[in-house]
Every structure is written in C-alpha cells, then in structure tokens.
Design goal:
CBS_dom; 2 domains; 3-stranded mixed β-sheet; TIM Barrel; alpha/beta; 8-stranded mixed β-barrel; globular
C-alpha cells in the first residue's frame, strides 16, 4: 500500500507539468518544488534568465513555503553574472521569496576558457544567498571534475539517464556511480523524472532519498503516493522502538570555523551543555565537541595557550549522526560502535542532512529500558559500564 503525505490543499492539487514535488523517499514528505522553465533563449535547450524568472513567479504563486528548485543554463550564468540575474531577483522579490529559499540548478555546456568565470559567478550567487546545484549530470556536457571545484549543494542526475533505468544495466551502473560520487563530494542527490516503480526501486538501491517525476505527482486529493520499498527477506529484528525525533533535545551549534575560546565560553555559559556541534553554512554537522574531553584538553598544562585562539574543530570528533526517523534500538547500535565514545551525544539530522538537535544516550537508555521487548546489545549494556552524567 503506498505511503501518503499531504502536499497542498485540494484546490492546489492539480499542478501543471512544469511544477512537481520533490519527495523524500524515506519519509514520503514533500521537501521542495521542482519548477521547470520552458527554454526559449537558453543555449543548448537550457533555460535562460528570463525563462527562470517566469518559472519562479509561476511556482511561487502557490500558497506554500517549500523551497524552489530552478534550472538555468551555465552560459547564461557566465554571461550575466550575479548582477545580470536581475529579472530573477525581481521575480523572487515580487513573489515574497528570498534567495536562500531557492536552489539554482546550473546545466548545459560551456567553453573550457569560461570555467573560471563560471566558478566566480557561482560564488557570487552563493554570496547573495542562493544554493547552487549541478544538473543534467551523466549525459550533459559539463565536465565531471567541476563537482570538485564548484562544491554544489545538490547534484541532479540526467533525466535521459534515468529513463534508461532499469532496462539498461550499464545505465543503472552509471547512475549508481554518479550517486556515490555526489555523496563523496558532499552534495545531495536528486533523481528526476521517475515514472515507474522499477525505476524507483533502482533509485532506492543507490541510497538516493530525493526524487521527483510522474510517479510521485500528487493526486486529486493533493496527496503524494509514494510506493513502499519491497521488504527485505531478512529484516533486522533489532531496529525497533520509538524514533529518535521523539527524544530530540536542542543542540548548541557553532560555526565550523569557531575558535576553541568561543567553545569554552559556550560550555561555561551553562553547566548542562554536554556537547557543542560545529556546523557548516548549510547547518550540516562537521564536528562534535564532547564537554569532558574538550575541557580536559584546554585545561591541561599549556592547553589554553596551544588551542585557545585556534579553530575548535581541531579538537572535535567526527559527528555521530542519525536520521530523525531512526528507531531507538538502531540509534543504540550506532552509539555502541565506538567503545571510546559510547556515551557521546548523537546528532539528529533531517532529510537534507542538517542538524535538528542532539540525542543523549542516557535518555535513549531510559527510553529503551522502559519498553518491554526492546533488548539493546553490545557495549551499551555490557557488565562494568556505568552511565556518564545520567
């Protein structure tokens, strides 16, 4: 039976083909709107600035605060620069939208000599507040190493490549590789134009969570029906219990470039703070400062002199992240993987990998121990271990 999630009121349910919901395949939730501009002047069939502005106005008419994902040609970005995108800026202003609510998907080819100009233009768009994506990945004429230099927030696979899946094993192998590449360069992955359940199954096997297409269009009721994945033959019996979002606590976050001195001030302001999470510009966790270990490092002889004015991330551990939908037992399994950090706070993330809050392992133990039938295993319940700071 397909999962259901509300998208829009019934009056707004009949979307034109140019606007479609982007769906998180794990939760069934709609997290953004894909607003496809009809190209009239963009090189190579990609939308030009005026086309993008028209698409932005059209999508923004809907009574929803969901982010917009817009396409624009790389050549238009190069030729216009951030200042030349005035029609788009004005369209968003009229629609009451801010640049940080828009992801600009750059696609189409460009001359090798224009590479620096393109990268400079992308930096300019980011400075204004836009999130930047690379589109048509897999069949477009954009060099793949641009993903390393452009640092995109999102990579959108080519609809033509997706259309060959799963009938063409080579295309499916390429899609899987591109999805892995995107994750490894720190970008989210979006698969467009998913029209069949077989394609959706392949996309899920690539560990991709974001997709849109005819299969995921809202029905007359305004709901999106997401086909459920085929259950595994041997499901993990231990993944039970409430989801971690039910035990969420606010996180103390700081910019990843914050100094150790600033982190000391944060810990000193409130004795109950057990961790400080260092995040990037998109609120994605990049490091975790455990109170005990961090304060011990800076309180040691010459510790403050060595670390005080330097970035706190030098003393941080990799964040132990769990998606907000993770069951309690699965979260305990994550906590028990590292014997030295068993009781470190877990960082709970949303669909886009952004920090939502923290989960204290002591709370997790109390929650699991209070429910019959849930039996944690591993370091968390081994003899001789005692809870820290419970």
């Amino acid at each position: 039976m397909p999962g259901r999630t509300p998208l829009l009121p019934p009056a707004e349910a009949q979307m034109p083909s140019a606007v479609s919901p982007i769906v998180d395949l794990d939760t069934g939730g709609v997290i953004a709107l894909w607003a496809a501009a009809e190209p009239t002047g963009g090189p190579g069939g990609a939308p030009a600035v005026v086309d993008v502005a028209r698409a932005a106005l059209h999508a923004a008419r809907r009574e929803t605060s969901l982010p917009l994902v817009l396409r624009i040609s790389a050549q238009s970005v190069i030729d216009a620069g951030s200042a030349g995108l005035a029609p788009l800026h004005e369209a968003l202003r009229v629609a009451g939208r801010r640049p940080r609510e828009v992801i600009l998907t750059v696609e189409g080819g460009f001359a090798p000599g224009d590479r620096r100009r393109l990268l400079a233009a992308l930096d300019g768009l980011r400075a204004i507040g836009y999130l930047v994506a690379l589109g048509d990945v897999g069949t477009g004429h954009m060099p793949m190493d641009l993903a390393a230099d452009a640092a995109p927030y999102l990579m959108v696979l080519s609809p033509r490549l997706v259309g060959r899946v799963p009938r063409d094993p080579r295309a499916e192998a390429l899609g899987r590789s591109l999805a892995a590449l995107a994750r490894n360069v720190g970008a989210h992955v979006l698969v467009p134009e998913v029209s069949e359940e077989a394609q959706l199954a392949a996309v899920r096997s690539w560990e991709v969570r974001l997709a849109h297409g005819p299969l995921l269009k809202p029905g007359p009721s305004g709901r999106v029906h997401v086909p459920l994945p085929v259950p595994e033959e041997a499901p993990i019996a231990g993944m039970l219990g409430p989801r971690v979002q039910e035990m969420l606590l606010p996180a103390v976050t700081m910019d990843e470039h914050a100094t150790a001195e600033e982190a000391i001030e944060a810990f000193g302001s409130e004795p109950s703070i057990t961790s400080v999470i260092l995040v990037d510009e998109y609120q994605r966790p990049r490091g975790s400062l455990d109170r005990s270990r961090f304060m011990l490092s800076v309180a040691s002889r010459y510790g403050y002199a060595l670390h005080g004015k330097k970035p706190a991330i030098r003393l941080a551990d990799p964040p132990r992240t769990v998606p907000k939908t993770t069951p309690a037992i699965a979260a305990m399994q994550v906590a028990g993987r590292d014997n030295e950090r068993v009781y470190d706070d877990l960082v709970v993330t949303d669909e886009m990998g952004r920090c939502m809050g923290i989960l204290r392992v002591s709370d997790l133990i109390r929650q699991v121990s209070g429910q019959p039938g849930l039996a944690p295993s591993g370091p968390l319940n081994s003899p001789g271990r005692h809870q820290r700071g419970a």
